[in-house]
Amino acid sequence: MSMDRRQFLKLGLGTAMAGLAATHVPRAFAGGAGDVRVVLFDAFPIFDPRPVFARANAMFPAESGFTDLWRTKQFEYTWLRTASGAYRDFFSVTRDALRFAARAKKLPLSAADEDRLMGAYLELEAWPDALPTLRALRGAGIRTGFLSNFTRGMLDSCIRHAGLDGLFDQVLSTDAAQAFKPSPLAYRLGTDTFGLERAQIAFAAFAGWDAAGAKSFGYPVFWVNRLRQPAEELGVGADAEDEDLSGLVAFVKARAAV
Known about the structure:
Layout lengths: L4 H6 L27 E4 L5 E2 L1 H10 L6 H19 L5 H15 L6 H10 L4 E2 L3 H10 L3 E6 L3 H11 L7 E4 L10 H11 L6 E5 L2 H10 L3 E4 L15 E3 L5 H6 L5
Helix pairs in contact: 2-5, 3-4
């Protein structure tokens, strides 16, 4: 995914908290009976990655495009390694992408600088709408979990740091599949772990490509489009979209047998 850092830094939460009630209807909402019992989240609908880029900008304030290149190369490496069968975990891939971006921009990245930037991925805060959304889902009898490219260690560290302990029934890293999203092997971790059909597991995506991948696999998909990006031209897309998590509860309740 190519991400515009400036959009991230300017991103406001808008009505993230106010619209959490079930009366909020997300764009492209398609109601109807269903049997959703679980919601799986990518990492970034829950965790705010902006501090990573803020730290990088503070360290290299004069270098335009460094964080964009780091982020772009990070995801290129996940796709290339999955396609080639040369898997390395997401923390390692992120470090490799950081080193590439620093070399490409001719930046003096010391080992201490590298560790400081990588450490930011272990202490992400939750978006303000994450905790009330998780509580609302669990209060409605819906189980919750992660299905992320993050390593289990990255997820556990961020969960502790953000104060979200005990709010996830499963914490699934694509490490277990040795393949990154959007590989079907990665999405299959959800059905295998919960023992449910695909239509019974909703997926909350952050990136348009992840929304398309999860939908292609067969999950009902809610796209948390915090960057306000257009949908990818991949022939398939999310069932519903909003700029935050405020419409997720309504989306799930309309499809839940609880």
